[in-house]
Amino acid sequence: MPFKLKNKYELFGYEEKYSNGDRLVVEKKLPKEVYGQINPNGVIEINKDISPKNKKRAVAHEQVHLDQMNNGLLKYDSQNYYYRRNISSPIQVIPASEINTHDRSLPWESHS
User: Fold this and answer.
1) How far apart are the C-alpha atoms of 66 and 23, rounded to whole Å?
2) Rounded to whole angstroms, how far apart are CA atoms 49 and 28?
């Protein structure tokens, strides 16, 4: 009886259409107003209920944050966001409880 092997994206639950060697993307149920987000581990989550065009835009936007994380400019955990404009600038520690993550005027959003 023939069978089909799953590729690595299917095997681990990632969306092959948007993932590549440098990023992993998963589609999931997110709040209606959230198109995408990035986890501290660098996995991009996109809203499964938005149009393909908006999924592509969300991945491109979150890719900017992934690049910031990979370049040492942005990091976050459950308590704080850690941001610096460039690699030689001091790290700003911003308590997560003091920000609205949907605010597009946050310093790391101005790069995207």
Assistant:
1) 8
2) 8
